[in-house]
Write a structure and sequence with these properties.
The protein is an alpha/beta fold and 204 residues long. It is built from six helices and six strands; from the N terminus they run βαβαβαβαβαβα.
Amino acid sequence: FENEEHSIIPRIILMENCGIGAAFCRSIGRGILNAYERNRILSEDKTRCLYRPSVLRIGGNPAIGDAGAVAIAAAFRMAISDDNTDGSALIMEELDLSSCNIGDVGAEAIALALACNPSSLKKLDLSNNKITDVGAIALARALLESRERTSGVALEQIILDNNVGIGDDGAAALAKAVSAGVVSSVHIRSCSICAEGAAAFGKA
């Protein structure tokens, strides 16, 4: 995947519950960046086609942690599209980092990537992690900031189920993103949301 001599990369990578860690994520990140650089160089050659992964599911690997999330987020933040340099091009359809022992540091890194490259991702699964209100607020703020770079929906679906550290404050921030129309679907089951957080979504 990292090798610059290879011209074909798998579109779907499924490595759930495989014991992989942050080193794997760094490799994936370098591969994404290499793919974008090669596309930029070969952009004038219309006969060449370079694939990039569209689905990356690596959930159930707790060794990934914040370090792995930061590595993947850095690739999303730094990738430059071959046909659009304003940071609004799709990088990946789906990123599954569920049950990967990710906390607020990892969530904030992903949030920064989404703010820098809005619409770079369609579906983000961060369920069953250790994210609190701090991470949820960072993600919501990033989606709201994306309005400055792109119009419409910045993220189709974000899944934050079973992050028990997310309470009313995180829910209220996410509700604002829903109200602004920058995210279509928010999953926050089995968190610590009470009446205030639920009311925020009702208002949204």
